[in-house]
Amino acid sequence: MPGKVHLIGAGPGDAGLITVKGMEMLRQADVVVYDELANHDLLQYARTGAKLIDVGKQGGRHKVPQDGINQIIVDEAMAGHWVVRLKGGDPFLFGRGGEEAEELRKAGIDVHVVPGVTSAIAAPALAGIPVTHRDHAPMVTFVTGHERGDRSDERIDWGVLARTGGTIVILMGMSNLEHNMSRLMEGGMNPATPVGVIHRGSTPQQRVVISTLSEVVKDCRDQGVGSPSVVVVGDVVGCYDRLGDLR
Fold first, then answer.
1. Does residue 57 carry a catalytic annotation?
2. Which of 1, 30, 106, 181 has the smallest set of CB atoms within 10 Å of its CB?
3. Which of 4, 87, 90, 172 is labelled catalytic?
4. Is 35 marked active-site?
């Protein structure tokens, strides 16, 4: 009989931010298939004898392509194992968890999701930047900083985003930071709009760059801040001056 799979969100980086349920599943699984952005300290909680499979990918560097990851999970479950797929943040927010769940369903495998604390909210919060605020932002938009490499078209309408208002949170956007900031300015957003970049949020290596739409690329370059980072665009970034580090 096939085993089962739990897609588990490991949180934004701090090992303490995995959910209680996620930790319970991790402790019991036969196989753990883990990502680069899932804190590797969590692996010490896997049961003795559990098979640990590193399929990490970060900043465009893939140890295993997504099709290969899907196949590994399917194969391990079809062998009768209980598999935990440990993913950074939340599996269904730009984590490709939906694609993995679909592949498992097609293979007739029992699959469940354990939501995680997403870095899109947690990293700014721990840096003193609330993504919504009664005085500054009644709404928030989450957007990927890069689209699929096999697409020639740009599906994200940055001009519309520039005029929508509220907060824009960009994940996986450092490699395209200059392009994305330019597209927002071309769409009519004020170049002086505050921008916050949180690098490795929630971890001891957390660094924060506070800048503006027109200067953030230079400031990140000057300060050596790159991936993985969360980019926050909007007036809420001004809260950093009053709140500071909230870890």
1. yes
2. 1
3. 172
4. yes
Of the pLDDT bands very low, low, confident and very high (cuts 50, 70, 90), residue 146 is: confident
Compute CA 74 distance to the chain's CA centroid, rounded to the nearest angstrom: 23
Q: Which two tokens stand for residue 189?
A: 């957003």
Sign of CA dihedral 28, 99, 183, 235: negative
235 is known as an active-site residue: no
- Ramachandran angles phi, psi of 208, nearest 5°: -125, 130
For residue 160, which amino acid is it?
V
Q: What is the pLDDT of residues 3-62, one digit of tens each?
A: 999 999 999 999 999 999 999 999 999 999 999 999 999 999 999 999 999 998 655 566
Angstrom CA distances, 177 to 61, 94, 131, 160, 182, stand at 18, 17, 19, 18, 8
Instruction: Provide Rg for the chain, Cα atoms.
Output: 19
* Residue 134, amino acid: R
